[in-house]
């Protein structure tokens, strides 16, 4: 028979999943020669295992991270490396994902450095065009165990909308407004700067007091 501790742990997992009706949790755990992937929501928990040398995978992740961090990177190289990581980590679980659900990604170790929306699927779409994504350090346990919040500004959420840089207009990123609204719903006391209210002066004034900063834009 299951022990009381096991029953409590199972309840801690299943109860949040029953409420996960508009999103899907993807949890990655890296082992030396494989990556275990759990896909979980109110439809159940599915497990996948991908064969991959962790040292090689880490090198690819760090290379992709550097490419995405450098404005002078070739878009062709960014897309090529993003496609490679998509094939390794997301293509094997495509059948378990639903296009009408956001993705909450819980990545292990160096995988947490991946800018997930920039991965490219087989049809040439970026992941961020297909899904709203969020990175989470522990979706199933954080809310129940860390509800208490210290005083002061907790979360600062910024959504600039469309912007102009060096005379070139950039339209709002796909799903960026949905993403910012989603974060604000999780932190009801958050200060939400949008469009014209988001200025460099105001942002620099508020940042020192923010424990969490989420920017949804270019």
Notes on the protein architecture:
The protein has helices at residues 4-18, 54-69, 75-89, 127-130, 142-145, 176-186, 200-206, and strands spanning 23-31, 34-41, 44-51, 102-106, 133-135, 155-159, 163-165, 168-170, 191-194, 212-215. The chain has a five-stranded mixed sheet. It has a three-stranded parallel sheet with strand order 9-6-10, with helices on one face. Strands 7-8 form a two-stranded antiparallel ribbon. It is of the alpha/beta class and 218 residues long. The chain is globular and about 50 Å long.
One letter per element, helices H and strands E, the order comes to HEEEHHEHEHEEEHEHE
Terminal CA distance reads 53 Å
Percent strand: 15-25%
Mean pLDDT: 85
Tally of strands:
10
Low-confidence stretches: 141-151
Strand order of the largest sheet: 3-2-1-4-5
Question: Structural class of the helices, strands and pairings?
Answer: alpha/beta
Overall 3D form: globular
Helix content percent band: 25-40%
* Number of discrete helical segments: 7
**Main beta sheet, described?**
5 strands, mixed
């Amino acid at each position: 028979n299951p022990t009381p501790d096991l029953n409590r742990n199972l309840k801690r997992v299943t109860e949040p999943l029953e409420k996960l009706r508009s999103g899907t949790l993807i949890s990655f755990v890296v082992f030396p020669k494989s990556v275990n992937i759990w896909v979980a929501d109110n439809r159940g928990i599915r497990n996948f295992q991908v064969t991959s040398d962790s040292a090689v995978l880490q090198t690819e992740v760090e290379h992709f991270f550097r490419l995405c961090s450098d404005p002078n990177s070739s878009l062709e190289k960014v897309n090529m490396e993003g496609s490679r990581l998509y094939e390794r980590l997301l293509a094997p679980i495509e059948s378990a994902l639903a296009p009408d659900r956001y993705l909450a990604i819980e990545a292990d170790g160096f995988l947490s450095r991946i800018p997930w929306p920039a991965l490219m699927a087989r049809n040439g779409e970026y992941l961020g065009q297909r899904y709203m994504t969020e990175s989470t350090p522990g979706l199933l346990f954080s809310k129940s165990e860390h509800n208490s919040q210290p005083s002061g500004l907790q979360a600062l959420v910024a959504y600039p909308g469309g912007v102009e840089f060096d005379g070139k207009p950039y339209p709002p990123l796909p799903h960026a407004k949905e993403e910012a609204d989603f974060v604000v719903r999780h932190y009801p006391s958050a200060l939400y700067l949008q469009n014209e209210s988001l200025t460099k002066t105001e942002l620099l004034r508020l940042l020192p007091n923010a424990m969490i900063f989420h920017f949804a834009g270019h």
